[in-house]
Amino acid sequence: MAKPGSDATREAVALAYGQTDAAPRVVAKGKGLIAEQIIARAREHGIYVHESPELVALLTQVDIDERIPPQLYRVVAELLAWLYRLEHNSANTLSSPPAQPPP
User: How far is 99 from 32, CA to CA, in rounded Å?
Assistant: First the structure.
């Protein structure tokens, strides 16, 4: 997830979530050059980068390797569900993916 802005103020948070995980966890976060590197690495690996300043502001408060707080479960679950549908559609059909992720 990325927060738009100039390179000096840009922020990014990377989440990881596996089938056996109780909740998504923060695996990387940073501002400025670090944020740009997080975003670049995600894109190199074909990982979707969602830009949401509000969500990034909340997620930057979570320590690295910590699970996201229960208050963020719903919004992150909606985003992950949208991404899973997008991946499923692109892998199995040529139909159009959903227009945009949840807010």
Answer: 29
Q: Any idea which residue has 């109780």 for tokens?
A: 22
Helix (H) or strand (E) holding 2: strand 2-3
Report all structural domains of the chain as residue ranges with CATH numbers, in order of start: 2-67 (3.40.1690.10)
Say what the pTM is: 0.76
Residues 77, 31: contact at Cβ < 8 Å?
no
- The whole-angstrom separation of Cα 72 and Cα 89 is 26
Q: pLDDT digit of tens for each residue in the chain (103 aa)? A: 666 655 558 999 999 998 899 999 999 999 999 999 999 999 999 998 999 999 999 999 999 999 999 999 999 999 989 988 888 887 665 555 555 666 5
Q: Which of 75, 59, 57 has its CA nearest to residue 25?
A: 59
